[in-house]
Amino acid sequence: MTTNGGHEPVFCTVVPPHVLDKLARSEDSALSGAARRTLERDALERTRRRLTTVVGAPAITAPAGAEPGTPHRTIYDARHGTDLPGHKVRGEGEEPGTDATVNRAYAGLGATFELLLTAYGHDSIDGNGLPLDATVHYDRDYNNAFWNGEQMVFGDGDGEIFLDFTLPVDVIGHELSHGLTQYAANLTYFGQPGALNESMSDVFGALIKQYTLGQTAAEADWLIGAGLLAPRVTGVALRSMKAPGTAYDDDVLGKDPQPATMDGYVRTGRDNGGVHINSGIPNHAFYLVATALGGYAWERAGQIWYDVLTGGELRQQALFVDFATLTVKAAKDRYGQGDELTAVLKAWEQVGVRTL
Is 175 a catalytic residue? Predict the structure, then answer.
């Protein structure tokens, strides 16, 4: 059984399991303890999501009388507990308080809503004004943020490896974009379709960050989670779309395992078939398209990716070749035989994904 009108929600985290697994094996108990607790909590939340999918969850709709094209944000405080959603601390239109984490979450939900509406005419993540809810201060030393199919949840980090998960706006955008994918294409969260699911979140997370900062493709850093890693970590972010595999190289975290091309494709049964690892390949393809076209990435490159995600032809079990082929079609349909089509074809060729 699926919920939300046939859309099957999944539990998606921004920090990959392989990173937490590495931390959990650290000899430093200050690092391993938080990582183990986070893995345990993630496993529990993942199981809860699976059970909710089976028994059904209440449909979420815009408030009665809500004006189309306006956000409906609510921020909750878990107060370091795990009961969701927690205590309401800020509603739509209310003034900011003294808690910077609450204010960042509120602003990040708004930035996501604004990009989708302004750039693509998409009203919230479901296209129909879905309320955007987020819970902050989840658990203690919780080293993750997640979308559970219904809402956003942010940990404060342990302060040793990860800082507050509301600090990078692209982390907020990444997790909310799992909701966008859930409602638009419902990509299966395993193997290549799962890697595409993760990549879509990185793409739109990056676009939200660039839109917020007013950056062109050339000005952007193309990092996911910059500012999230604590000072002791040898690294700059969780992932790099510009140069997958270079985001971190740390004694504790290990080395960023993402490949940039199909030559480095990783076959594994872990992390749902490597969804956070192999997403580097379509991520890099998007970066190549965006930088080849120049200007603001959410305009032409982002429009092509959005058209594929929401166009109704993207199968739940889509492979990289399927997605790439649809981007070629979308580029032709919207822009004809121009620079956009050339950039798309060249990008997929560079990363080793064929198009039909």
Answer: yes
